[in-house]
Structure to design on (86 residues):
């Protein structure tokens, strides 16, 4: 399982989520992939990312399992990520 974080440096909510994402990933031992949508517009388009931040949970084969759009508090975000750990 992997968490993919689609973000942009200029995005306020993305910057707000950065420390939350880093803490949750560290606490849960989850693999994190960060994708800057300005530097990787094709990747963002392929993943149908329409707004940021967008967080995608992928299975071990790279298939999307779930997605969350926008900011969240740490406990809500952690609960969402945790619900996908097997």
């Amino acid at each position: 399982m992997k968490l993919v974080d689609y973000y942009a440096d200029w995005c306020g909510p993305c910057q707000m989520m950065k420390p939350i994402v880093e803490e949750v990933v560290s606490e849960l031992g989850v693999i994190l992939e960060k994708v800057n949508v300005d530097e990787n517009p094709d990747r963002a388009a392929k993943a149908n990312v329409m707004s940021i931040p967008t967080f995608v949970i992928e299975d071990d084969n790279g298939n999307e399992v779930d997605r969350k759009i926008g900011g969240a508090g740490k406990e809500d975000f952690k609960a969402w990520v945790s619900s996908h750990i097997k």
Remarks:
- The chain has a mean pLDDT of 97.
- The chain has one domain: 2-82.
